[in-house]
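Weekly sync, protein design subgroup
Attendees: M.S., D.O., the rotation student, P.L. (late)

Item 1: inverse folding check
M.S. brought a backbone from last month's batch and wanted to see whether the design step gives back something sensible before we order anything. D.O. pointed out we never logged the input encoding, so this time it goes straight into the notes. C-alpha cells as presented (426 positions):
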C-alpha cells in the first residue's frame, strides 16, 4: 500500500481549519488561549531565533564573495527606488478602491464594539517624532550586540554589509571568515527546515487563539471593509505585481507564485512576515537570484517595501473618514498619499506598525483617531492579507533587482520551476 505524503502547504491548511474550528467552538473561553497561545508563540520565537543569524551570514558571504562599495551602493539605490515606486502605487490603488467602493459609508461607528487601542496610541506618541532622517540615523547601530539582540533588521543589515566589505578588503585573510559564515548559513538553513516542520502546529495555535478571542462574527459589521481590502490586495497581486513580473522582468507570474505558494500560505495563516523570511531567501536563490542580491533586498524590504501594509493603511484611513462623515477633497487625498509615503517608512520596525502608522496618519489629516479602535477588532484578519502581499512583493523585488543588475540566472530559475512542478505535494 502506497504511503500518502501530505505536503507542508496542506499541513498548514489543516492546522488553519482546525484552529478556526477549535476557536469557534470555544469562543469567549479565555482558558483556551492559555493552552493554544504558547503553541503560536513558540513557533514565532523559533523563527525570530534564526532570522538574524541567517541575514548576517548570507549578507557577509554575498558581499564579501564579490561585492564592492560601489556595487553595494548601486544595489542599495536601485532597491530603494523600486520600493518607493511600488509602495506609492499601492497607496494610490488603495485610495482609488476606497473612493470606488466607499466601505465606510452608511456605518454607524457607535454601534460597533470597540477594541482597546491604548497600547497603539502610546506607541504612536513615542514614535511620531521619529522622522525619516531620524530613522536613517538609527540604521547605524551604536552597539552591534544590542542590534542583534533586539532583531533590529536595518541595523543588522548595515553592519553585515560593512563587515562583508571589510572581509572582502583584506583579501586572502578574509577567506576563512567567508567559509565560517557560509557554514553558519548552511547550518541555519538546516535549522529552518526543521522549524518549518512544526509550522502547522504554530498556525493551529495562532488561529485558535485569534478566533476564540474575536470570533468569526466580528467580521460581519466590517464585512464591506474586509471585502474591499481583500479584493484590492488580490487585484494588486495579479495586476500590478503580475504586470511587473510578465512584462518588465519577463518571468511567468503563475510559475513564480507556485515557487513560493507554501510561504504565502504560511505568511497568511501566521500573519508574520518573519515566519517565511529564511525560506524566501533560500527559494529566491534557487530561483536564480544571486545570494548578494537576495540577502540584501528581502530583509531591507521588510522595512521599506510593505506593499500590503501601505495599501491597507490608505483604504483604512478613508474608511474611517467615510464612517465619521469627514469629506476629503482631492487635494487632501493627495496629501494623504504623501503622508503615508513618509510615515510608512519613518516608523519601520515599530511594534504594531500598521496600526501605529494609521494612527499617525489620521492625526495629521484631522480624522478622528478613535476610529482605529473599530478596525483593531478585526486587525488580525486584515493582517493576514497584508502580510501575504508583503511577502509576494518582497520576493518579486529580489527578482526585479537581480534582472536590473543583469545577474539573474534564467536557466536556474526555469530548472527550479520544473522541479517544483514535478512535486505534486501542495
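Designed sequence read out in the meeting:
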Amino acid at each position: 500500500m502506497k504511503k500518502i505524503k501530505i505536503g507542508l502547504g496542506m499541513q498548514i491548511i489543516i492546522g488553519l481549519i482546525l484552529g478556526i474550528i477549535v476557536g469557534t467552538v470555544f469562543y469567549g473561553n479565555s482558558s483556551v488561549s492559555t493552552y493554544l497561545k504558547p503553541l503560536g508563540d513558540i513557533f514565532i520565537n523559533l523563527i525570530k531565533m534564526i532570522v538574524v543569524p541567517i541575514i548576517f551570514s548570507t549578507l557577509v558571504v554575498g558581499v564579501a564573495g564579490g561585492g564592492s562599495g560601489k556595487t553595494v551602493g548601486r544595489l542599495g539605490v536601485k532597491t530603494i527606488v523600486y520600493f518607493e515606486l511600488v509602495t506609492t502605487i499601492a497607496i494610490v490603488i488603495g485610495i482609488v478602491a476606497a473612493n470606488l467602493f466607499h466601505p465606510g459609508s452608511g456605518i454607524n461607528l457607535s454601534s460597533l464594539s470597540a477594541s482597546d487601542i491604548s497600547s497603539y496610541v502610546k506607541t504612536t506618541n513615542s514614535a511620531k517624532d521619529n522622522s525619516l532622517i531620524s530613522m536613517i540615523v538609527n540604521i547605524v547601530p551604536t552597539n552591534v550586540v544590542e542590534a542583534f539582540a533586539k532583531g533590529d533588521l536595518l541595523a543588522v543589515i548595515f553592519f553585515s554589509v560593512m563587515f562583508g566589505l571589510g572581509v572582502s578588503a583584506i583579501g586572502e585573510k578574509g577567506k576563512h571568515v567567508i567559509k565560517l559564515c557560509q557554514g553558519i548559513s548552511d547550518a541555519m538553513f538546516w535549522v529552518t527546515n526543521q522549524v518549518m516542520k512544526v509550522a502547522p502546529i504554530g498556525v493551529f495555535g495562532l488561529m485558535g487563539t485569534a478566533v476564540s478571542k474575536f470570533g468569526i462574527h466580528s467580521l460581519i459589521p466590517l464585512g464591506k471593509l474586509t471585502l474591499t481590502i481583500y479584493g484590492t490586495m488580490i487585484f494588486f497581486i495579479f495586476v500590478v505585481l503580475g504586470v511587473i513580473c510578465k512584462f518588465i522582468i519577463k518571468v511567468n507570474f503563475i510559475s513564480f507564485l507556485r515557487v513560493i505558494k507554501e510561504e504565502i500560505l504560511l505568511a497568511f495563516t501566521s500573519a508574520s512576515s518573519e515566519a517565511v523570511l529564511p525560506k524566501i531567501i533560500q527559494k529566491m536563490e534557487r530561483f536564480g537570484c544571486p545570494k548578494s542580491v537576495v540577502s540584501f533586498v528581502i530583509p531591507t524590504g521588510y522595512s521599506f517595501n510593505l506593499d500590503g501594509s501601505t495599501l491597507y493603511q490608505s483604504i483604512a484611513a478613508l474608511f474611517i473618514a467615510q464612517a465619521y462623515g469627514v469629506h476629503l477633497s482631492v487635494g487632501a487625498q493627495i496629501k494623504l498619499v504623501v503622508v503615508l509615503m513618509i510615515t510608512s517608512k519613518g516608523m519601520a520596525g515599530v511594534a504594531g506598525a500598521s496600526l501605529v502608522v494609521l494612527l499617525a496618519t489620521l492625526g495629521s489629516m484631522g480624522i478622528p483617531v478613535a476610529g482605529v479602535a473599530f478596525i483593531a477588532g478585526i486587525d488580525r484578519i486584515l493582517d493576514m492579507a497584508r502580510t501575504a502581499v508583503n511577502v509576494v512583493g518582497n520576493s518579486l523585488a529580489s527578482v526585479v533587482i537581480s534582472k536590473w543588475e543583469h545577474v539573474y540566472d534564467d536557466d536556474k530559475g526555469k530548472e527550479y520551476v520544473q522541479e517544483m512542478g514535478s512535486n505534486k505535494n501542495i
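Discussion: The chain has 20 helices and no strands. The CA atoms of residues 289 and 408 lie 5 Å apart.
Action: P.L. to compare against the previous round before Friday.
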